[in-house]
Write the structure tokens for this entry.
Amino acid sequence: MLDIGQIPTPCYVCEEEKLERNLKILDRVQKESGAKILLALKGFAMWSTFDLVGKYLCGTSASGLHEAMLGRETMNKEVHTYSPAFKEEEIAQIALISDHLVFNSPQQVRRFLRRAKNANPAVSCGIRVNPEISSAPVDLYNPCGIYSRLGTTIENFDPSILKYLDGMHFHALCEQNVDALEEVLKAFEEKFGNYIPQMEWINFGGGHHITRKDYDVDRLIEVVRGFKERYEDITVYLEPGEAVGWQTGPLVGSVLDIVHNGIDIAILDVSAEAHMPDTLAMPYRAEVRGAAKAGEKPYTYRLGGNTCLAGDIMGDYSFDRPLKIGDKIVFEDQIHYTMVKSTTFNGVQHPSIAIWTKEERLEIVKKFGYEDFKNRLS
């Protein structure tokens, strides 16, 4: 069990045993459905764990050059790269280190496919399509929302490019169960089903909350099997990011001061703006270990970060006992998405990155200091 007393703050802590639990669930899906699962680096890019992740998953999916490089350098299994728009000066390098290259539009295919193949004749190319249906809960994270730039709609699709391509990719989900995938898959097949038999692979994208307790894993296996039965010899890919890092560890901070202005306010050495940006963007309320909603327990505090941004607030939480300076505050489930989006805004101390090993030992794998702040600027 994670010993909070050993954690220097601020610090992200990935619990190795919980990460492997998720990976075993994903590996079961691979083995029983025949799908291949990739780690989406946009959701979990803690490469110090990739020896473990690579034991179970088939590779990584990237959103551009730097993520592709990270996947190649740190896991070195399959690398799949998609970008809303590739850059002319990067396409050859991306193709060289990628196994799959997914274009966003027919125009990008026509512009860059030959150059990509010249750089790497073995690269398998595809196109991302937009099935124009999604039940994503938040517009900010809805890839198929109105006026989306992500993927090509059937109206703008050009079948003539398919003779140059090996696969199709769609992504329409966000933290959703298999019923949402079934709805999207139905729309995908209705719009693009005539072209699927020409393909070698179909990528179902991400947003599959496979490792969440209420996710219907058995049904997912059935859905993938059914698709593969309808389209013989086709390879199916899934590329969750959040499902890999889901519930694998907290962000731990400390109380620096307590002030009062109509409400008791605890100022922490972690920041919502810099270290937990999804709580402001999504928005959502992070769970705090041992705490409840305001007023439900005897002592209520507003938790705020140590930046000059007035809105750098985690929310109002209540506790069984009064907080005091030096107390540690544990924000649950902050390894996926949160860590990859963190910044050094306002020069605040960036949290260290640590692993709580299966042997119940804390390993600090990265500390951040002034140079990290300075070197992002000029």
Notes: The chain has a mean pLDDT of 96. The CA atoms of residues 211 and 243 lie 5 Å apart. The longest helix spans residues 16-33. The radius of gyration is 22 Å.
